[in-house]
Amino acid sequence: MNVRNLNNYYIWGMKALIFVIPFLSFWIAKSMFFPYITARNFAFRILVEIALALWIGLIILNKEYRPRFSPIVIAILVFAGVIGLANFFGVDPYHSFWSRLERMEGYLMILHLAAYFLILITVFRTKKEWLAFFNAVLLAGILVGGYGVLQVLGLKEAIQGGDVRIDGTIGNPTYLAIYLTLVIAITLILLFNAVKSGWRWFYGAAAAFFFFVLFFTASRGATLSLIISTPLFLVLYLMFSGKYKKLAIFSLVLIFALPLIFWTLKDTKFVQNSEVLSRFASISLGEKTIKARFIIWNMALRAFKENPVLGWGQENFLYAFSKYYDPRMYDQEPWFDRPHNIIFEWLINGGILGLASYLGIFAALFWGIRKIAVRKLAPTNENIVLIVAPVAYFLQNIFVFDNFNTYILFFALLGYAHSLVQQDQSVSVAPNTVIQEKSASRSLAGLLAASLIMLPIIYFVNYKPSLAAKGIIEGLQSTASSVDPVEKTLKRFKTTIELNTFADNEVLEQLARVADLLISQESIADNLKAPFLQYSITQMENYLKKFPGAIRLHLMIAALYQEASRFSPNFIFKARDHLKIALSLSPKKQQILFVVADNYLKTAELNKAIELLEEAVELEFTYRDAHINLATVGIYSGQENVVRQSIKNLDEVRKLKFDKNHPDHSLWDYIVDLSKIGDAYLRIENREGARSIYNRILALEPEVAKYGVGLDSYQNLLKKFD
Predict the structure, then answer these.
(1) Which of 160, 341, 433, 620 fits a disulfide with 327 by CB distance 3.0 to 4.6 angstroms?
(2) C-beta of residue 613 within 8 angstroms of C-beta of residue 636
């Protein structure tokens, strides 16, 4: 075989695979569980694995294509090595390596990103090749942004953004914002390298388009990042670039003036009536989600102190979150598997060594950019973009975390910076004939060996788990079958679990939800429920023997046992065993205390239930549900002193939660809480108790009247008692 042709086959084969990767961000696979995550990650891995086999053949054939070491290359390899070590010694090495369908990260992502980086710096040897790849990134960005515009127009639904924020095909407004930030940086690189004015206008318009879409993500992290990175860009432009200085000065003044103007107008109807602008106007340290971030970061800091050197390993923040749960998080999402801060992310994942190795990548990148600038290997404006882009990217990640869509762009920028540093070194592709012939044979043998290794990797690492992701969806769809839904659902889940993949945890969680739903349906015969229930419990118990720290699964199987106690009273105590384990894993999580108390309530151990609920009240006094639950058990046990104290506490919470901007909110919350206590009296047919509660509500009518409403519904309830 002609060696030069073989060389080209390798190069063009890898390029063809790599050029597909940016367009994966546009792919939504609704047939798979987590449609915005799973398919594109599986595809990315497969593309990289095939390209890696070709890469091995190429570097055997032609030593000139072997990676040249630079601080950037070394930093990435050190990072991969440190995180691998942290995962090995972490809390849950299995999931640290494999991750879960919901994230598709873990060490597998690190390994594939490192391989992706090496392939990029191998196949793109000239700036022209890099700019061609960046044009593909730009085109993919236009497709993603265009989908976002359809969401702005109401023609497509934003899955997580709702009616206020768009998420494009990324599936999350904040992720979309970070993705667009990097796409804008790449677009500006293209702009500053364009020779023809027509292309410059096109790239300028594309950048403006991306900023337009970015605005409708209403991402406050992106806004804060732009407030810092845009002035940085303009200052560097004024310092080092000789063109359009007056425009830059005007833009800089405008950048500083806009926040002040916006802050002055934030309470006007124009801002408040805009769903996007009002979200920006709500930015404050006291805002609910921002307060939650600070609480989570404090939890992460405490967890880091427990394992400061190598951390907990990737994908293990849920263990830390459970152990160091702060009761003030009661009104947030029940589970966080990320600290939503890139610094704490890597402190948890890899300890101080992991964070240092991660920051080392940025240090190496800035080393490369400095070298590019000193040696004038790129236009001045491009150097400025290369400086500002990682700053903007890092600043946004202080409030969130990375994902596939941002990883591939950031590592592309790393590869580009490395290649610019290396670009003045000549590339020889014509070794002497004797070496060529020997190299060709060795190369093809290496390609064959690599392919034989990659095929089972593709099958076990990607294909089987992708079937599991599809199997979950098919199992859920089977529940709606018009013919024998129970048997079809059970069969589908059995097939999925038999795949034995890293997705088993999520498969079992969905199986538990379906089983719980089926058991509660009276229309389904017990003889159909029993096999489904038995299979579900058996599979979950087997899994928990291998992964006893899976707290969510402990709670799910406990709920399943408790719901199935109608079949066997002993199931109540099996549920309690799992609830106790869950409580030991997260002793300060009130929701767990609630379900444990409910379990004791079912066995008429009322004093134990009250003890647990009193503990929940003490953990965080402002948690209204804790007081309501305690009052309810007090009603069931006939302990009126407990009920009276709970009502008194709720009134105190009402005062503590008073918001001068929304003075009626705490009042209506209090009325709703009292109604729930009244309903508890009615459930045990204690009409006098209910009457006392509704009279208490009606006594609030003068306060309610201030807001132009009445309490007629409660008046009508009292009339029914007469």
Answers:
(1) 620
(2) no
Mean pLDDT of the chain: 90
Instruction: State pLDDT tens for residues 324-370.
Output: 999 999 999 999 999 999 999 999 999 999 999 999 999 999 999 99
Mapped onto helix, strand or coil, the DSSP state of residue 44 is helix
| Mean pLDDT value of segment 306-325 | 97
Which amino acid belongs to residue 220? R
Q: How far apart are CA 8 and CA 15, in angstroms?
A: 10
DSSP 8-state class, residue 68: P
User: What's 499's DSSP letter?
Assistant: T
Question: Does the structure show a pLDDT above 60 at 432?
Answer: no
Q: What single letter denotes the amino acid at residue 509?
A: E
| pLDDT given for residue 672 in this prediction | 93
Four-residue CA torsion sign, 40, 42, 47, 51: positive
Tokens of 697: 């509500």
Sign, CA dihedral 546-547-553-554, equals positive
* Alpha-carbon span 177 to 168, nearest angstrom: 10
Neighbour-count burial of 306, counting CB atoms closer than 10 A to its CB (0-12 exposed, 13-18 middle, 19+ buried): exposed
CA–CA distances in Å: residue 514 to residues 33, 142, 347, 402, 499: 15, 40, 37, 31, 19
User: CA–CA separation, 217 vs 233, rounded Å?
Assistant: 22
SS (H, E, C) 570-584: CHHHHHHHHHHHHHH
d(CA 534, CA 661) in angstroms, rounded, equals 53
Q: Determine the residue type at 129.
A: E
pLDDT, residue 607, reads 93
The DSSP code for 69 is P
Single-letter code of the amino acid located at 672 = V
* Inter-residue contact 219 to 174 (CB < 8 Å): yes
Torsion 44-47-49-52 (CA) sign: negative
Please, is 424 exposed, middle or buried when counting C-beta atoms within 10 Å of its C-beta (0-12, 13-18, 19+)?
exposed
Q: How far apart are CA 96 and CA 89, in angstroms?
A: 10
Q: If you ran DSSP here, which 8-state letter would residue 460 be given?
A: I
Task: List C-alpha distances in Å: 573 to 165, 404, 531.
Answer: 46, 43, 21
CA–CA gap between residue 379 and residue 243 (Å, rounded) = 13
Give dist(CA 590, CA 622) in Å, integer. 12
Contacting residues for 124 by C-beta, under 8 A, at least 6 apart: 130, 133, 415, 416, 419
As a whole number of angstroms, the distance between CA 490 and CA 475 comes to 8
Segment (H or E) for 612: helix 606-619
